[in-house]
Amino acid sequence: MPYGGRWREYKRAFNQLFNQTTVREYRPQLVKAARYLVKRLYNKPQDFAHHIRYSFGSSILSVVYGIQVAEEDDNYIATVEHALEGAEQGFRPGAFLVDFIPALKYVPEWVPGAEFQRKAAGWKKDAEAMKDVPWQNIVKDGDHTPVAMKLSELLSNVDASDFGEDGDEMSRNICAIAYAGGADTTVGAVHCFFLAMAIYPEVQRRAQQELTTVVGPNRMPEFSDWDSLPYISALCKESMRWQPTLPLSVAHRSLEDDEYRGYFIPAGSILIQNTWAILHDPEKYPDPERFNPERFLKDGRLDPGVKDVRAAFGAGRRICPGRYFSDMSLFITVASILHTFDISPPLDSESRPRKIEPAMGSGSMSHPLPFECSVKPRSKLAEAVALGDYSTEQR
Ligand code: HEM
């Protein structure tokens, strides 16, 4: 989508709703989602990949619409995920003949071979449901005013009709984009964390030692512990760096002629940020293929001298507006899981740990290829959270 008019207003709203200060208001929702994730992992550890996705869905639906999802098989999550599956298929380059013969988009959908037309009509319906179904069920959740309720005020000075939309339509779009923008990316980062823990047991042990020392065995981690958990913070950064979910970010187009370090960039050029290369630069991150949170630490604290992993979120004015939300979400998820579970490779027929390779899918969105791992409770706390003996509310 070009940066201008309507999109500039969307981005302005995003920046107000998800900036570094505002996101702090969403902490209770994230704590709650992390506790439910512990519960689901305890009950069905083998379904960890499904739980990660479900957990992201539950936190974003509660932050954006105030909706509390069902513990399993929630209808809102199903509606939204169904729509995203369609979008994913439609955006996959080369998936349809129309990618190679653009004129096919003018062919009526009943013509044999016009599969894209038929599917596109279905996806459009799903996308409308994704925007409408949660929107029609916005609820104020205790002290939390959902993002959807704040939008009408935020957009009150925008004449949406300039963009061929009404104010409601803009708000509905912004809410749906929050889910879509964060879904695969945040889920991918948590997935990479699971993969790393199954491959690097010594990293996991260090992180758990820190949690035991700082948080102790009788309670769950909170956001107030964050500053006292530098190893966990470093581990989250390393999860973003090691296998970035958007290795080539999102393509940008230059609007005017420009110059960068002596290179002339004509207007209309497509520019691709090589995030993978930036985050695997051996000068900035020695031995870059190794998952090593220590690289971000010096004397037991985060080392400000190490290049930050912000590049994972893009750059310039299009930089990801969900980055602070995502940092918070990753921290509380990682801390809660490592405090309650051990993640390890599955055993082979002779009870030896199977070797797991860090294999990633190709494509613009890169997730770990499916892998198995064992997720076992490491303390009574996991059981207490799962049985509801430990509050799922923030303490
Ligand atoms: C690990 C988590 C995430 C990663 C790695 C990530 C990464 C990115 C990247 C690389 C871009 C493109 C930036 C550019 O064009 O330079 C982007 C854009 C965007 N992200 Fe994220 N993102 C994450 C989480 C989120 C979340 C949680 C949200 C919503 C709450 C979100 C909403 C968006 C939106 C709306 C855009 C489009 C911005 C624009 O085009 O101006 N993202 N993200």
UniProtKB/TrEMBL annotation:
<keyword id="KW-0503">Monooxygenase</keyword>
<dbReference type="GO" id="GO:0016705">
    <property type="term" value="F:oxidoreductase activity, acting on paired donors, with incorporation or reduction of molecular oxygen"/>
</dbReference>
<keyword id="KW-1133">Transmembrane helix</keyword>
<keyword id="KW-0408">Iron</keyword>
<dbReference type="Pfam" id="PF00067">
    <property type="entry name" value="p450"/>
</dbReference>
<keyword id="KW-0812">Transmembrane</keyword>
<dbReference type="InterPro" id="IPR017972">
    <property type="entry name" value="Cyt_P450_CS"/>
</dbReference>
<keyword id="KW-0479">Metal-binding</keyword>
<feature type="region of interest" description="Disordered">
    <location>
        <begin position="348"/>
        <end position="369"/>
    </location>
</feature>
<dbReference type="InterPro" id="IPR001128">
    <property type="entry name" value="Cyt_P450"/>
</dbReference>
<dbReference type="GO" id="GO:0004497">
    <property type="term" value="F:monooxygenase activity"/>
</dbReference>
<comment type="similarity">
    <text>Belongs to the cytochrome P450 family.</text>
</comment>
<keyword id="KW-0560">Oxidoreductase</keyword>
<dbReference type="InterPro" id="IPR002401">
    <property type="entry name" value="Cyt_P450_E_grp-I"/>
</dbReference>
<dbReference type="GO" id="GO:0005506">
    <property type="term" value="F:iron ion binding"/>
</dbReference>
<dbReference type="InterPro" id="IPR036396">
    <property type="entry name" value="Cyt_P450_sf"/>
</dbReference>
<comment type="pathway">
    <text>Secondary metabolite biosynthesis.</text>
</comment>
<keyword id="KW-0349">Heme</keyword>
<dbReference type="GO" id="GO:0016020">
    <property type="term" value="C:membrane"/>
</dbReference>
<feature type="binding site" description="axial binding residue">
    <location>
        <position position="320"/>
    </location>
    <ligand>
        <name>heme</name>
    </ligand>
</feature>
<protein>
    <recommendedName>
        <fullName>Cytochrome P450</fullName>
    </recommendedName>
</protein>
<keyword id="KW-0472">Membrane</keyword>
<dbReference type="GO" id="GO:0020037">
    <property type="term" value="F:heme binding"/>
</dbReference>
<dbReference type="InterPro" id="IPR050364">
    <property type="entry name" value="Cytochrome_P450_fung"/>
</dbReference>
